[in-house]
Amino acid sequence: MTKLPNWLISYLRQPFVFIVWVMETYTKNTTRARIFMAKPDVIKVFKLAITITMLAWIVVGIMASDEDRGRLTEKIRTTWGDIQDINEQKKLQSN
């Protein structure tokens, strides 16, 4: 059996190097995110941002015309149903 050339070995190794890099980066970022989100002020800012966004969408819903309000309501119902399906799938996978 002949030995493969170095350039071919390097070429075939690259997908594995990339996968390892992605996994290491994901682990580092997950750890950083946990540390960042554990700070009380950060949680307050995120809750405030979510509350402001919710209030803005309520204002949009109130000020929309009847036709637009119907489309907005339908889109929210569709999105909510999709979210519920995803949550159910996660529950089934964790069991």
Model description:
- There is one protein chain.
- With 95 residues, this protein is an all-alpha fold.
- The chain has 2 domains: 1-38; 40-95.
- The protein has 3 helices and no strands.
- The chain starts with 5 loop residues before the first helix and ends with a helix.
Q: Outline of this structure?
A:
The protein has 95 residues and is mostly helical. The protein contains three helices and no strands.
Counted up, domains total 2
Q: What fraction of the residues are assigned to beta strands by DSSP? A: under 5%
Stretches with pLDDT under 50, minimum 5 residues: none
Rounded to an integer, what's the Rg over CA atoms? 24 Å
State the helix count. Answer: 3
Structural class: mainly alpha
| Biggest pleated-sheet summary | none
Number of strands: 0
Question: Kindly, what is the distance between the CA atoms of the first and last residues, rounded to a whole number of angstroms?
Answer: 48 Å
What is the general shape?
elongated
